[in-house]
Amino acid sequence: MAHFWNQTNALFRKNLVYHRRHARSHLKVILFPAILFILLGSFQSYSNKTDRTKNDPIIKLEWPPLLQIPSPQFRAVMSDSMPFSGLPDASCRGTGSCPVTVLITGNNRTIGESVAGKMFIDSPEPNSTSDFRTIADGVFGTDAGGDRLDSNLLYHVRPQCSASLFRNSTSETDVICAEGLNLWRNSSAEINDELFKGYREGNTQGILNEILAAYDFLDTSGENFNVNIQFNSTYGSNLFNDEPELLRIPRSENMVYPYILFYAASRSFTNKEKASKLCFSLPQALVKSLPLTMVTNAYLQFLRGASTKMVLDFVAEMPVPGGLLRPGDLSTFLNIVFYTWVILQVFPVILSSLVYEKQRKLRIMMKMHGLGDVPYWMITYAYFLVISLIYMSCYFGFGVLTGLTIFKLNSYSVQCIFYFVFTNLQISMAFLLAAVFSNLKTAAVVAYTIVFGTGILGFLLFQSLVDDASFPRGWVIFMELYPGFSLYRGLYELSQYARGGYMVGTSGMIWEYLSNSNNGMREVLIIMSIEWVVFLIVSYYLDQVISSGSGNRRSLLFFLPNSQRKDLTSLEKSSFQSAESSVQIENGDVSEEREKVEQLLEKPHLNYSAICYNLKKMYRGKDGNPDKLAVKGVTLALPRGECFGMLGPNGAGKTTFISMMTGLLKPSSGSAYVEGLNLRTQMNKIYGSMGVCPQHDLLWDTLTGREHLLFYGRLKNLKGAALSEAVENSLKSFNLFQGGVADRLAKKYSGGMRRRLSVAISLIGDPKVVYMDEPSTGLDPASRKMLWDVVKHAKKDRAIILTTHSMDEAEYLCDRIGIFVDGNFQCLGTSDELKARYGGCYMFTMTTSPENGSKVEDLVKRLSPNAKKTYHLYGTQKFELPKDEVKLSDVFLTVRQAKERFPVQSWGLADTTLEDVFIKVATEHSESLH
């Protein structure tokens, strides 16, 4: 448990330092919503001035609500192009007595026809054009060519007309009676067809058949009122052309209407709670339309009798054609879309940070030094949650301070819960996508596409489907499974409720309204809460099975109790089968190593830090290529205090072997144990006692050398004075202390300094086994010698495996050396043993003029008949002289005699070097393959 908290402490401190370096970027991100909200607040203030006055909380409107009544010669009649039942005969056009037609449909015909029959009422005629109350009480309208009261002609729609014309002597206004006709249609499709034929086809033929309005009552009942409306909006409201149009009122166009209806219903219902429940289950429709008022009054009278009535006294404007944007619509668009973008802009930051650690292999580096999956997930998630909550707090605070209605009018608790849940969902979604992507640029492009695409698609597609009452609610919920649409739906509901509350001077969304079936906030909160948990679980699963930067892939059923046992059983079988099928001829020292390992596997010995037996790695062939066996059954035992060097040409498999031992690659077969722990099943425990210096430096560019060592020291359970002392000693040992180098950012380090820091990281915390992959690459001679001294001193208490191409390094550091060629050891032993075994020759070199080359060969043959020429370039020749055939005194005497016969520019006699052994072993193996 103590080690667990040390890991979490290490990662938390590292994250704090890392993000402190990016404080300026974080500040810019936080200030972005502040600037945006100031602009939106200014726009809101301007938009509000056009919709309402400063002092009156209720809307002050300019003229009474009026319909646009089709002219008598254009009212719908029976014709060849309009073969629809119930329409009057065309002869009524001659007398001007054609009724105005209203089409009705819905799921319940009885209720639909009953409600529709109450829409046209007998009301007194207006005494003057200023008698707004009288006009508002009835169903009045102007000719389609006039849209205000400055017209001298009004139509009054009644159930029946006793007189066709009334004259107002005061204002000289003619009031013409128009009879209303309700016709039932079986579906909204039939209504759309009738409207199309009457307007579009009629317009092309020069004979219009205009419908006053159409109502689809959908699932309206005694407890639920739900209606889609289409009404006449021809001529006067069309700003661009004279083509007749109908304006469809969306189901959720404006939040204000339920509030106004609540006031009306509360005057007729003694039970206020029932009235509130009824009114807030109504469609959120456009308050500025008389057609909606007509059908609402009819519905109230259907429920409560003829005395119940809601009066809409004034409207601000006549309906505009579909597709034109009103100021309120533009405000809604800007609010919801920009709020969506502002909230989602944290998502690319989180995703990029996670993928950055994965692409740069920093996650693996941390894990190889002991960081477990649970501390990583817990601290990383908690850290991003804190960052996101700080950002969202600033977002919410700026919104309240700038006076935006969506923040001020809606319940603070509703908003806080909504933002908190989505913040967690956003982090979970970032973890989920981080398990899929391994390239930072690709992840960033996808993240920003999600951000901007969500806002645009939400407004252009998703919002229209939410508004469409005919669109199945189940499909809306299905679309909300995408987190971006859940966010958009929640913001849309908050915006609509805030707009409605503002229009009538009340609050916006409160908790009680979430029980309303038309309110989508409850379902959004449920969906986001469930997805929050599901995404985290799926993210962790994918992280384990597809190796998203955390090391070896685990089996697809790793969470089952028996899965690990099955994997181990199959591994053991494959190990023994591989051992039995291995028929390659091994040298004596390699065979001895195998026998020793087999004995250690039967009787484990505590003095050995690492043991591997018949370890293999197979890469499956692709595109028709054969399988590649990169490591062909390595068997090796490393006692404590030994530094083992692996020499081999490029591509021999050294790095693949190191990667298997450090958990980067999963062995195809074979077994290995580190400090008595199974490499296959106990790798997480092995990490705590392991140090790694990878072939390529894996460092955070914005952390200093000291901060790197502090972080990895904490992972190795160092703390307090012991941690500070270990860090200071490492910095001094690797010459990273003086000149402020220790506190310089790693991105400013030279290649050699980064390499020294990587070696220092591998040794801090007293690891029991250390893997170094070409540790001295890129170092100058002085730095290389200093590094060698540190490593040589460090090997006393631990086992070290290093790969190198430097023979001097191998001879200076390594107690044993293995020459690794074509995926396996060709020989094992100390430097002197290898020289004695593979280099029982003197190397004789002589340089003369080219024409004396044959004389040199004759001279060498006299020294040793079995001499072998290994090199010849121009006048320089190199020979191997068997030691058992040559005396050193004979060599010196022969050379002295040769100088008397022909000029000798230079000559030399040397014992076999490790480099000679390496070349010889590699060459012989290559020749044996061919």
TrEMBL record:
GO terms for molecular function: ABC-type transporter activity; ATP binding; ATP hydrolysis activity; lipid transporter activity. The chain crosses the membrane at residues 336-356, 376-398, 418-437, 444-462, 474-492, 524-542. InterPro entries: AAA+_ATPase, ABC2_TM, ABC_transporter-like_ATP-bd, ABC_transporter-like_CS, ABCA, P-loop_NTPase. It is a multi-pass membrane protein. It comes from the Eukaryota. Gene3D superfamilies: P-loop containing nucleotide triphosphate hydrolases. Residues 613-847 form the ABC transporter domain. This is ABC transporter domain-containing protein.
